[in-house]
Amino acid sequence: MVFQESNDFKTKVKIRYKIEAKNSELKNAHALGLADSHGISGMNIQAGMTIFAVNIKRILKLIR
């Protein structure tokens, strides 16, 4: 409760919605919530490729 009243917490809460929106997009729109392969290394590759694709999508949107 004390931490929630601090200025540090209030500052971080103001930007959290942006991070949560991006996590939601990765999970729901790009199927990051489902593993396509077995093992940690396969999931790491899937996460990396998904994040790469989302970043390329954002770059193309910013260029337009």
Structural commentary:
The protein is mostly helical and 64 residues long. It has one domain. The protein contains two helices and no strands. The protein has helices at 7-29, 39-63. The longest helix has 25 residues, at 39-63. The N and C termini lie far apart (45 Å).
Spell out the key features of this protein.
64 residues; mainly alpha; 75% helix; flat
Content of β-strand: under 5%
Q: Gyration radius, to the nearest Å?
A: 16 Å
Low-confidence stretches: none
Biggest sheet, open or closed, and with what strands and sense?
none
The residue fraction in helices comes out at over 70%
Distance between the termini: 45 Å
User: How many H/I helices?
Assistant: 2
Query: Could you tell me the number of beta strands?
Result: 0
Tertiary shape = flat
The structural domain count equals 1
User: Which structural class is indicated by helix and strand composition?
Assistant: mainly alpha
Order of helical and strand elements: HH
Integer average pLDDT = 92
Question: What would a concise description of this structure say?
Answer:
By secondary structure, the protein is an all-alpha fold. Helix content is about 75%, strand content about 0%. The protein has one domain.
